[in-house]
Design a protein that fits this description.
sodium-independent organic anion transmembrane transporter activity; 60% helix; 4% strand; 3 domains; Growth Hormone, Chain: A; mainly alpha; single chain
């Protein structure tokens, strides 16, 4: 007791003005002040960390909401957008080990503050291309832009167009081409997202361990729960911010909005995607400011002074017996290195862990791919605007996921479910979730009627060669390009790729109010009574809004059902490995999820979605741009089918986990597991479960501190 008292005296002498020889005679009032100071410090840190969690969740979800905007703005395919999305995980992986190990020995609050600055710098970098790549140009016939020259959409002879107009137009194209040829501005978006991943790295490991070190033990779980709750709120605001920015035109403040001839319902519409990143960057800077003023250490609560578990920093600041401690920790590190390979062998020799790891990797592939391209799927399948899509996801889907995670934990606690029960609940959640997902195949919309792509110019359903079908007898006398995408809606309810391909001979008005007349292809269509057309594509069928409503209901129920299994699955992972291997097992688990799911899933989902494109846009200097029109049926089968196949394989691995647990468990083990004493992973020997593992792992970041709570 004398040695322990002496160590505590030396510890607090660095943080208080009271002399060492009088510390044992503190009055009750001074002890009360110290307690208030401790509680106040940890609560300030808790508030700051909660705000940081909110900031990083907001910026991450906002990126998801701008996937289609980025694709259109930079004229890139979905596969490349997937690479941009996965760069965040790559940045995180680059320094996670260094931060987790060395961060515990340094000034943790300031490292978190520096991470916030890096994260904000990356967010600002994502928005920078908007200010350097010029104004957004979309494909429109000159007469739809406030032009003083009356032009015929169907240019039967170039002499109809004044030479000066053609020359000026060609000069502008050439000038723009020279500018675009030497730049690929989407690279800045990729680098910015990579930087975001680097900046986000220290927030979780260092923030959670700081709370665990200096919070009262019975309050630590509550504090961490508060942080995670605030983190769930972040994506809601992120998608709502995405909804707001998607309503605004990309060049708002730089161009006259009255001259814009496209609307948010047009596939060429690009919202003010960059504005949200500026807002998110400012929030990240504000979130990091408090950490620069927080102390490196806080006084430990009285209830934890005699605790066997020491803080991350206490081992580095106690001066007494320094030589002995140094010698001891060197031996401990050597012991850790010597046990690495046996631990790895032990971990991968655990069939439950390996099977659950495989199930999780495949399931996260399905979920990450599905979430990344869900906005695109809703926009293309149901003809919704980006603004409405983000609003629906943020206000309906994400709260359903949060409620599902909470429900899973509540069921586990209320019914005192053990390891076998957790495996059953996780399996049931996945099975019924993917079963509900199967019903979404029947809730899609048919392809829009687009002449030459989904229907012929005479009204019959589609033919084989899409490009050649764009030309027909009705537009054979016009000088049209099959590369343009300037859709118009005929009176017959059919969309035409351009006014020229519709055979329109005259136009009236300007901007969004332009009306085309004498359109030969519109007049030849079956049941056509008029040959006029207006700017913009036609709306989807009358059944599509009803299908979208059904989709929302099933999607919310599916999100909730799949989320219920999240907490039981995590408990299963923790209870099926030996206590001294938990930190190592969690590290391998997190690394595998990031490398094998977080990085590749958006890429190959994007590649698969690109295969369903019917009409590609073209860049000003040549080459394929972003997709303008998707095959709705093919997109539905590819997007939902790929998710369902991965989910089914994951469920099969979950069945294998349950089978192994049933085979290895006994009624006595299940009873003990239900009482929270131990799990049912069927290890042959449990004598080595309580080796001096705490002493070996405490010197570095210990994820078990976080998960145990």
């Amino acid at each position: 007791m004398e040695i322990s008292s002496k160590e505590h005296t030396h510890f607090f002498s660095n943080n208080t003005i009271v002399p060492v020889d009088r510390s044992s005679f503190k009055s009750e009032s001074s002890a009360s002040k110290e307690k208030q100071s401790c509680c106040g410090g940890i609560k300030i840190f808790l508030g700051a960390l909660s705000f940081v969690y909110f900031a990083k969740a907001l910026s991450g979800s906002y990126l998801k909401s701008t996937i289609t905007q980025i694709e259109r703005r930079f004229d890139i395919p979905s596969s490349l957008v997937g690479v941009i999305d996965g760069s965040f995980e790559i940045g995180n992986l680059l320094i996670i080990i260094l931060v987790s190990y060395f961060g515990a020995k340094l000034h943790r609050p300031r490292i978190i503050g520096a991470g916030c600055l890096i994260m904000s710098a990356g967010t600002f970098l994502i928005a920078m291309p908007q200010f350097f790549m010029g104004r957004y140009r979309y494909e429109r016939f000159p007469s739809t832009i406030n032009s003083t020259v009356g032009l015929s959409p169907c240019l039967q002879d170039k002499s109809q167009t004044p030479l000066s107009t053609l020359e000026k137009s060609q000069a502008k194209i050439n000038a723009g081409c020279e500018k675009e040829a030497g730049s690929s501005m989407w690279i800045y978006v990729l680098l910015g997202n990579l930087l975001r991943g680097i900046g986000e790295t220290p927030i979780q490991p260092l923030g959670i361990t700081y709370i665990d070190d200096y919070a009262v033990e019975e309050n630590a779980a509550l504090y961490i729960g508060c942080v995670q709750t605030v983190a769930i709120i972040g994506p809601i605001f992120g998608f709502l911010l995405g909804s707001l920015c998607a309503k605004l035109y990309v060049d708002i403040g730089f161009v006259d909005l009255d001259s814009v001839t496209i609307s948010p319902k047009d596939v060429e519409w690009v919202g003010a995607w960059w504005l949200g990143y500026l807002i998110a960057g400012v929030i990240s800077i504000l979130a990091g400011i408090p950490f620069w003023f927080l102390p490196k250490h806080l006084p430990k609560p009285e209830s934890r002074k005699d605790s066997s578990s020491s803080s991350e920093h206490s081992k580095f600041i106690i001066e007494e017996n320094k030589d002995q401690c140094t010698s001891y920790w060197q031996q401990a590190k050597l012991a850790e290195m010597a046990k690495f390979l046996p631990s790895l062998k032990n971990l991968f020799g655990n069939p439950v862990y390996i099977l659950y790891l495989c199930a999780s990797i495949i399931q996260f592939n399905a979920l990450i791919g599905m979430v990344t391209y869900k906005p695109k799927y809703i926009e293309q399948q149901y003809g919704q605007t980006s603004s409405k899509t983000n609003f629906v996801i943020g206000l309906i889907n994400i709260p359903a996921v949060a409620f599902g995670i909470f429900s899973g934990g509540l069921v586990m606690k209320k019914f005192r479910i053990g390891v076998l029960g957790a495996a059953k609940l996780s399996l049931g959640s996945s099975f019924f979730g993917y079963l509900l997902l199967l019903s979404l195949f029947a809730m899609g919309c048919e392809n829009s009627d687009v002449a030459g792509l989904t229907v012929s110019y005479h009204g019959t359903k589609m033919m084989a060669d899409y490009e050649e079908a764009l030309f027909s007898e009705c537009n054979s006398g016009c000088l049209c390009s099959q590369n343009d995408w300037d859709p118009i809606c005929g009176e017959n309810g059919v969309t035409y790729v351009s006014a020229c391909l519709a055979g329109c001979q005259a136009s009236n008005g300007s901007g969004k109010s332009t009306v085309f007349f004498n359109c030969s292809c519109v007049g030849t269509f079956e049941s056509s009574q008029s040959s006029s057309a207006v700017v913009g594509p036609c709306q989807k069928g009358n059944e599509c809004p009803k299908m979208f409503l059904y989709f929302l209901v099933i999607s919310v129920i599916t999100s909730y059902t799949l989320s219920v299994g999240g907490t039981p699955g995590y408990v299963l992972l923790l209870r099926c490995i030996k206590p001294h291997l938990k930190s190592f097992a969690l590290g391998i688990y997190t690394l595998a999820i990031r490398v094998l799911a977080g990085v590749p899933a958006p890429v190959y989902f994007g590649v698969a979605i690109d295969t369903t494109c019917l009409k590609w846009g073209n860049k000003r200097c040549g080459g394929r741009g972003a997709c303008r029109l998707y095959d709705s049926s093919a997109l539905r089968y590819v997007y939902l089918g790929l998710t369902l196949v991965l989910g089914t394989v994951s469920t099969l691995f979950s069945v294998a986990v349950l089978w192994v647990l049933r085979k290895r468990s006994s009624p006595q083990d299940e009873t003990l597991s239900a009482n929270g004493e131990r799990g049912t992973c069927g290890t042959k020997s449990r004598k080595d479960n309580f080796v001096n593992s705490d002493q070996l792992i405490q010197s570095t970041y210990w994820p078990e501190k976080e998960t145990r709570l």
